Amino acid sequence: MEDPVRVALVLVPPLSALAVGSVAEPFALANRLAGRRLYEVGYYSWDGQPVALAPALAWPVHGALRDGVACDALLVVTEAVGGFADAVFFQAALVRHAQRAALVGGVHAGAWWLAASGLLDGYRATIHWSEGAAFAERFRKVIASQHVFEIDRDRFSCGGGLAAVDGMLALIGRRHGAELAERVAEALCVERIRPSGERQRVPLASRLGERQPKLTEAVMLMEANLEEPLTTDEIARLTGQSRRHLERLFKQYLDTAPSRYYLQLRLEKARGLLQRTNKSVAQIGLCCGFSSGPHFSTVYRAHFGIAPREERLQAEMNGIRPE
Fold first, then answer.
1. d(Cα 60, Cα 48) in Å, to the nearest integer?
2. What pTM does this model have?
3. DSSP code of 151?
4. Measured distance CA(27)–CA(36) in Å, rounded
5. For residue 14, is the peptide bond before it cis, meaning its omega torsion is within 30 degrees of 0?
């Protein structure tokens, strides 16, 4: 029987219990469902002191990173880019551990520390969407992406939150098989396991702030009416503006037409249904507002460059099992 994979979680404030749990719980469930200890998770801070969490909690740790950690995988977990007095020594410790660990990664904003240490130079990496632009600008040697997670050789990074769960499921699947990863996902009530190539969804309200409430309202109407799409005129009327003004808003802030944006929302929903359900192509097309299976297939191929049936086959080959 193989030894358990030793996973060291390096906790760096600011941090919440949810951020830690989204990384640790998939491994705990994998152990429980397998009936044996596949993963041994340890918690570490820089100095060995408990880590302050929000709100007013402290997470106990097993040791100090500065004293050295024996592990197979080391993941830096933090929810914001910050610094502390020993930052230079912290980065040097990450470099030392990267020379011994089989995998080094960052969760939420953790990739920032890896990049600052030079550990992501020449690697694909991602970070929480709120830090994405600054990350790409600051670390030009990193191949920055906006994906939910990235696994590039011996480096891992993810956007945090549910993206952390997706990333842990991918690591579990890679080491112990897609079937176990799917069982863990089911235990966590995860609707579907997102692949690494899926982009983080940046909330429209976050992209626009509060500058364009009418545009945000229009998109919310679209999202609520995917099966029976509204016309552009109907959306304009329901949001209390003219069609021409609505089209100007979409062009100015989203660089597309309302109809095109709506179509993309419907196709993204269809893609998820193809990957995670056994519904027929025709059924999925109807669920997403297309008049027929052939019409849906034609539009889908034109948008994604792949037919719906090929999309489903690829998902199955990647270990995503339909419901």
1. 9
2. 0.67
3. E
4. 11
5. yes
Of 38, 37, 48, 45, nearest in space to 20 by CA: 45
| DSSP conformation class of 315 | H
pLDDT in tens, 12-30: 998 999 999 999 999 999 9
Angstrom distance (rounded) from CA 133 to CA 117: 19
Closest to 315 (Cα-Cα) out of 284, 274, 263: 274
Residue 253 has a pLDDT of: 81
Contact between 115 and 139 under an 8 Å Cβ cutoff? The reply is: yes
Nearest CA to 146 out of 168, 170, 122, 129 is that of 129
Q: How far is CA 80 from CA 112, 155, 311, in A?
A: 9, 20, 36
Residues 59 and 61: their CA atoms lie apart, in Å, by: 6
* 259 Cβ contact list (under 8 Å, min separation 6): 232
Q: Which two tokens stand for residue 243?
A: 């069609």
Spatial CA neighbour of 11 closest among 84, 71, 79: 79
The number of CA neighbours under 13 Å toward the Cβ of 156 is 28
Exposure of 289 by Cβ count < 10 A (0-12 exposed, 13-18 middle, 19+ buried)? buried
